[in-house]
UniProtKB/TrEMBL annotation:
<dbReference type="Pfam" id="PF11871">
    <property type="entry name" value="DUF3391"/>
</dbReference>
<dbReference type="InterPro" id="IPR006675">
    <property type="entry name" value="HDIG_dom"/>
</dbReference>
<protein>
    <recommendedName>
        <fullName>HD-GYP domain-containing protein</fullName>
    </recommendedName>
</protein>
<dbReference type="InterPro" id="IPR037522">
    <property type="entry name" value="HD_GYP_dom"/>
</dbReference>
<dbReference type="InterPro" id="IPR021812">
    <property type="entry name" value="DUF3391"/>
</dbReference>
<dbReference type="Pfam" id="PF13487">
    <property type="entry name" value="HD_5"/>
</dbReference>
<dbReference type="InterPro" id="IPR003607">
    <property type="entry name" value="HD/PDEase_dom"/>
</dbReference>
<feature type="domain" description="HD-GYP">
    <location>
        <begin position="131"/>
        <end position="326"/>
    </location>
</feature>
Length: 397
């Protein structure tokens, strides 16, 4: 094989691949360039350099049957017209989320009835989450924000699991380990099913005695997973997600190096989701406030390096957050822009200035064509916005 600049490409040469270009062309079929016109077309499409197979260069006529397939150049991504977007992934993500709910509900019933849980479907679900996160993490991330107030235990475990897979992907952890982390996170609070309902569902603060009872849940989770045949990381997450670096956590009072990086990750994600959760008796905290509380807990409770990475990965205005723009438009963050975290894609649907719903529009705040900017996160209640309806009719439809 030989690499040649496009200026040296001649009719009759066999092109193996494109090695340098200004655009994003993919040669569908390798083959001979037949004519100078074909070469000119490649030049025009931004091809700068190609790899040729000198052994196949033809000196006479070029066979008709194997022409070089010159595809139409792929247009550069127009922010107003998304290519592989969160919207495209949403259908699959929603299906996975629904499967997770069904699976969790069944597992709760099994534990209550004294049966062991079957780990296989949880592993499969974790793997489905990971695949979705790798295709476009924004879809599942968005679903973690669409909570039902009365389904905390169910949704918290699912959300922690999704956030764990996003966090682990951000940290470039290998997929096998991400699967362990995601499975462990899905089941980390399963032991709560063994806590009496009056304690588990008590709104507000626990008494000291109630807290002592509640503390048993992570030990129960560990036992349940071990009985189901799990070992290693997943069991550690279930048993130790309430341990704290200064040794003041529970159930074992482990500290510092005794707490693995994986468990440290889980404890950050667990607290973040608990703080931002909307409950019957409390409004969900804005992510930025939750980050502040987690930061205040560093380094006594949480690992500051991992926390910074988590904030970087989730973003100050995570996907699913309701925000107000400088134009007073209100919308939902639907896609993250990792290069410019303060400039995500926002789906606007309400005008704060005119107090009315507007036409739905995707605004990419990172686009040079956009003059708008993100002002702050807001609560749907402040504007009497029916966010559930918006989710149902727009995001999930
Ligand atoms: Fe827990």
């Amino acid at each position: 094989m030989k690499i040649v600049p496009i200026s040296q490409l001649l009719p009759g040469m066999f092109v193996q691949s494109v090695t340098k270009q200004t655009g994003r062309i993919k040669i569908k079929n390798q083959g001979w360039v037949k004519t100078q016109a074909g070469i000119d077309k490649l030049k025009k499409a931004g091809i700068l350099e190609v790899e040729i197979d000198p052994d196949k260069t033809l000196t006479e006529s070029v066979p008709e049957k194997q022409p070089l397939d010159i595809p139409t150049p792929i247009k550069k991504r127009d922010p107003w017209q998304k290519v592989h977007s969160a919207e495209q992934e949403m259908g699959k993500a929603k299906k996975l989320y629904d499967e997770a709910r069904t699976l969790q509900t069944k597992a709760f019933k099994d534990i209550k009835a004294g049966r062991d849980i079957d780990i296989t479907p949880f592993r499969e679900l974790a793997s489905g989450f990971i695949d979705s996160v790798f295709r476009n993490q924004d879809a599942l991330a968005c679903l973690t924000q669409m909570r039902q107030k009365d389904a905390y235990l169910l949704e918290h475990s699912i959300n922690v699991s999704i956030l764990m897979s996003i966090f682990a992907k951000h940290l470039n952890i290998e997929k096998d380990i991400i699967e362990e982390l995601t499975t462990g996170a899905l089941l980390h609070d399963i032991g709560k099913i063994k806590i009496p309902d009056e304690v588990l569902n008590k709104p507000g603060r626990f008494t000291e005695a109630e807290f002592e009872i509640m503390k048993n849940h992570s030990l129960f989770s560990k036992e349940i997973l071990e009985e189901a045949g799990l070992t290693g990381i997943a069991v550690d997450i279930a048993g130790m997600h309430h341990e704290r670096l200064d040794g003041k956590g529970y159930p074992f009072g482990k500290k510092g190096e005794e707490i693995s990086q994986y468990v440290r990750m889980a404890s950050i994600v667990d607290v973040y989701d608990a703080l931002t959760a909307e409950r019957v008796y409390k409004a969900g905290m804005e992510p930025i406030k939750a980050f502040k509380i987690l930061k205040d807990g560093c380094p006594d409770s949480f690992d500051p390096v991992l926390l910074n990475k988590f904030i970087q990965c989730i973003g100050i205005h995570p996907v699913g957050t309701l925000v107000r723009l400088s134009s007073q438009k209100i919308g939902l963050v639907t896609e993250s822009n990792p290069a410019t975290p303060l400039k995500p894609v926002v789906k606007t649907f309400y005008s704060a200035k005119h107090s009315r719903y507007t036409e739905i529009k995707d605004i990419d705040l990172a686009s040079k064509r956009t003059l708008d900017s993100l002002e702050s996160a807001v609560k749907a209640k402040e504007y009497n916005i029916d966010i559930e309806r918006f989710y149902k009719n727009t995001i999930l439809s």
